[in-house]
Amino acid sequence: MRVLVTGGVRSGKSRHAEELLRPEGSVTYVALGPVHDDADWAARIAAHRARRPATWRTLETGDLAAALRTPGPVLADCLGTWLTRVVDEAGLWDADQDAVSAHVDRRVDEAVAALADRAADPVVLVTNEVGLGVVPEHRSGRLFRDLLGGVNQRLGAACDEVHLVVAGRVLRL
Q1: What pLDDT, in 10s, does the model give residues 111-120?
Q2: Is residue 167 part of a domain?
Q3: Per residue in 50-83, pLDDT tens?
Q4: What is the SS3 assignment for 105?
Q5: Which residues are catalytic?
Q6: Domain of residue 55, residue span
Q7: Does the residue 144 lie in any domain?
């Protein structure tokens, strides 16, 4: 089982992803986001951790491909924060769009290959749906929206199912 769970901010997508893997017992929860040093971010992380079973292991990394090679069930949350981390770490927010896209495409290629190589162990990827909102005012917002739309399409195509979560309700696409 390879599932991409998408939806808007606070739609319930992370909770749904966790429920998909709860029967597995031991799960590697991959926290893909960048490291922030602020109280709000710390509170969000604490709330997510408190929800997860004690048998789940947390892996904090920006290397999605390596995380997807972890044996056993894997839940990777969230591709949007992963993308931010990928672009941040490469210092590419002000770079030419083709250069940014090429860098992100290489990282997605690695993740798609790792996803394809997975054995029978389930994997659930969580991402934000960015195609339903307004056009961002700033270049970085438009760049992020365009890049994440491509990331979602490519990883969604590599999964067996895509679930859209809206207001806590799940639509299997």
Answers
A1: 999 999 987 8
A2: no
A3: 777 889 999 989 999 999 999 999 999 999 999 9
A4: helix
A5: 48
A6: 2-162
A7: yes
